Amino acid sequence: MLIPVKLKELGDIITGNTPSKKEISYWDSKDICFVKPDSISEQGISIVKNTTEYLSEKASSKARIVTKDAVFVTCIGTIGKIGLAAEGRYAFNQQINVVVPNTKVLPKYLAYALLSSKKRLEDIANAPVVPIINKTQFGEFSIKIEDNTLLQKDIVNILDKVVGIIDFRRRELQCLDNLVKARFVEMFGALNNTSYETLPLGDICEFIKDGTHQTPTYTEDKVRGYKFLSSKDVTSQKISWSNIKYIPESLHNELYSKLAPRRGDILLAKNGTTGVAAVVDTDEVFDIYVSLALLRPKVGYNSRYLWAVINSNDTKMQFNANLKGIGVPNLHLGEIKKAKVIVPPLEQQEKFAVFLEQIDKSNLTLTVGNYIVYVLGK
């Protein structure tokens, strides 16, 4: 039977910290893995074994140490990435809360339950620019769990098999992505080695603007409210409509009068997650936040081709070289406009777009989170 339980009732909750970087002896040997958000994947549950940074034994009294089966949850910046500690000892930074499970819940079942709750975790993050869930909020967060650990184990076994299939499919999709990049280079070369013209994005777009800088007042009314997108909704290089927010009609009317996205526009993530582009391939009416830039190509440029060239390694390198801000990366509009891209004749652009359409027919997506929600009965 599913019962609602607060996280603080399922184990000890610990917020991480970072021992002083000024004390070299804390960081001069690989005695204890030091977990940061980049140690945890955006997809599924990461089994954390190794990390890019380590603490020395001398730093152990200055850190929060956990061991096997501790559940890591990112709670600052990117919310709701889930990790599970393997054998060994682990310290972790202040962007991560850990649950050390008690006997009420199996560690991996808890990890799956939290993964299925990612959207709700994102919703309670209380800062518009840098989302954050503090320890108290996290402890009060409620999930539904089976009250029988034997049943929890059966559910974990089912989910492990499903996730294995989905991971295999994800690797196939990565191969398709690599094929797109290889075909692009075959047809057009690289930015510093091409026979085609190169132009800054500002020259090939009617305009490049970002969304509202005003923190919106959201609404739960999905019938009368209007869709509102931010950078998190384009991280897969396509618009994801599954976890979007909504704004009231009065705010929509104000925003839409200034910037009205339309089919063929390109949305580019410019805050937090940066440099990822998606094509608007629908006639949906929506508005965008400041974390997204909208690029409207001029006549004579194919949107699907531009999507590919903006997502190429050459363009990403230019974006990355010009990021601003400490902690949360920010790609300014001026830097986006200056980024140079390869511009072949329209006929060649359209030929590549046809190739992309063929790839899309094979590019079926499987959503781990949605299946987990279904299995857990939420």
Task: Explain what the structure shows.
With 378 residues, the protein is an alpha+beta fold. It folds into 2 domains: 2-146, Alpha-Beta Complex (Adenine-n6-DNA-methyltransferase TaqI, Chain A, domain 2), CATH 3.90.220.20; 188-344, Adenine-n6-DNA-methyltransferase TaqI, Chain A, domain 2, CATH 3.90.220. It is built from 11 helices and 19 strands. The strands form 6 sheets. Strands 2-9-6-7-4 form a 5-stranded mixed β-sheet. The chain has a 4-stranded antiparallel β-sheet with strand order 12-18-15-16. Helix 7 (303-310) crosses helix 10. The longest helix is centred in the middle third of the chain and has 40 residues, at 149-188. It is globular, with a radius of gyration of 23 Å.
CATH superfamily membership of the largest domain: DNA methylase specificity domains
CATH class of the largest domain: Alpha Beta
Compute the number of helices. Answer: 11
Structural class: alpha+beta
Average pLDDT taken over every residue: 91
Low-confidence stretches: 364-368
Return the string of H and E elements.
Answer: EEEEEEEEEHHHEHEHEEEHEEEEHHHEHH
Task: State which percent range the strand residues make up.
Answer: 15-25%
Characterize the largest beta sheet: strand count, sense, and whether it forms a barrel: 5 strands, mixed
Helix content: 25-40%
For the biggest β-sheet, the strand order reads: 2-9-6-7-4
What's the end-to-end separation, in Å? 12 Å
